[in-house]
Design brief:
Layout (H helix, E strand, L loop, with lengths): L2 H4 L6 H13 L3 E4 L5 H11 L5 E4 L9 H14 L2 E8 L3 H9 L11 E4 L6 H10 L5 E5 L11 H13 L4 E5 L11 E4 L18 H7 L4 E4 L1 H4 L4 H20 L1
Parallel strand pairs: 1-2, 1-8, 2-3, 3-4, 4-5, 5-6, 6-7, 7-8
Helix pairs in contact: 3-4, 5-6, 8-10
Bound molecules: 5-bromo-uridine-5'-monophosphate.
Amino acid sequence: MQYLERIPFCKNLLAKKLLKLMDDKKTNLALSADVTQSEKLLALADTIGPEICVLKTHVDILEDFNEKFLIELRKIADKHQFLIFEDRKFADIGNTVKHQYQNGIYQIAEWADIINAYILPGPGIIKGLAEVGLKKNRGLLLIAELSSEGNFTDAIYAEKTLEMAEQFPEFVFGFISQHKLNDDPQWIYMTPGVNLATENDSLGQQYVTPDKAIKENGADIIIVGRGIIAAKNPLDEARKYREAGWRAYKTLSS
Ligand code: 5BU
């Protein structure tokens, strides 16, 4: 199904917005902006912004995190029309994740459209995050499968993750996964561990190509970090991934 055709099936409002902007901008590429300086992150966001539907952050790796950075990042996201995804991977009980989401130094709920979480603590983690995020029109991705070697997210774990998502479709709108879990058109699948040039790194990361992620494994959005940001010319490289991702989608949906 094409992105626009799936919109009516989504119960989470942000998911509708995301599918619409993917269609408008003609991109299913997410940039993982894993840099440690805020100026560098802002420069990447501004340069690569026109090419992407989502910018993924790890805000806790910034050495010079400050409030001005957040204001600037939001401005750039609005200018280039992409969503911000803080890859925080919440994993605690409901009451704690609520605070981790809305309080502390980072106040993630104030600026991140998308967050993600593990289901390990049980449904309370989703209820806690939803208490904060739903009224702000945010959305949650559940981590169903990891990309790294030797991980414990087997098929049973992924299936349990899907069952948990089905209980909270107003807030959960999809998965971080390596494979599509079923054909329900409301779920959006984002896949990290995508690289055109290499198959792994020295710390257990495992890569697939955009083509494999989308055509064989059913990803909707490819998440690319070092494949783009470590390149000599990140913009040129982002365009390559964007084109590869879009071509794969078009082949499937035409
Ligand atoms: P890379 O440079 O393309 O390898 O970066 C991948 C990013 O995706 C990085 O920010 C990871 O934290 C993130 N990631 C991942 O690589 N694999 C996973 O299973 C999950 C997240 Br969940």
